[in-house]
Amino acid sequence: MRKLPVFFLCSCVLPLSCQTNRGALHLKATDPAGHSVKVVVRISSEANDHQSVLQTDGQGNLVVARLAFGIYRLEIEQTGFAPVYESVAVRSSLPADLRVQFKIPSVQQSVTVSADSTLIDPGHARAVNQIGARTIGARLGSIPGRSLQDLVNFQPGWLYEGNAVLHPRGSEYRTQFVLDGFPLTDNRWPSFGNEIEADDAQSISIYTAGIPAD
Which member of 24, 108, 135, 208 has the greatest number of CB atoms within 10 A? Predict the structure, then answer.
């Protein structure tokens, strides 16, 4: 079965538009002489629960599509060169471009300790939690009909009612489910609604404020 991204909103249905909350990254890697080089790129974001290990093509190019808005940390490595560490902010549907030129490793080494910059995105005031494939796959077991709801219930600001209806911040019956861009209007009470299993989801975005128009 094809896995689909599932979104939870805590407000009424909003009109669909061409806006999106995902962007892309275009990366180009070269050696000290400016020649293209094939490298391994590790991309991570704790705020978006994203981790991936990718490789550029023979021309040193890499395109990463459908990245949720946020700040991503890149670790780029190639044998014989000093590793490169970069932070990239994806804030619009326009691709973020990054050019990386490797350097010959220095004999001297230093360690820099700094706070992680991906826990909070300073460019957005809205509250959004991302649940990625790694968290979905490693989740605890659930009783039938509650696998997806249990994932959301573990996020800040959510509370179960006795009949397993999710309440965001104490609000009554204002939770909106959106599956692959389409709002679901049927009853989501597990005893009566059509259940969506957690294994059917590739990723989950949970909004409690600043809900995007799409």
Answer: 208
Instruction: Please indicate, yes or no, whether the overall pTM of this predicted structure exceeds 0.70.
Output: no
For residue 97, the model assigns a pLDDT of 93
> Which of 1, 3, 9 lies closest to 205, judged by CA?
9
- Name residue 42's amino acid: R
In this prediction, residue 128 carries a pLDDT of 77
The domain 22-101 having CATH identifier 2.60.40.10: the answer here is: yes
The C-alpha atoms of residue 28 and residue 60 are separated, in whole angstroms, by 5
| 10 in Cβ contact with 175 (< 8 Å) | yes
The arrangement of strands across the sheet holding 50-55 comes to 50-55, 40-45, 70-77, 84-90
- 70-106: per-residue pLDDT in tens? 999 999 998 889 999 999 999 998 999 999 999 888 7
Q: Of 92, 152, 160, which is closest to residue 128 (Cα–Cα)? A: 152
Paired sense of beta strands 96-101 and 22-30, if any: parallel
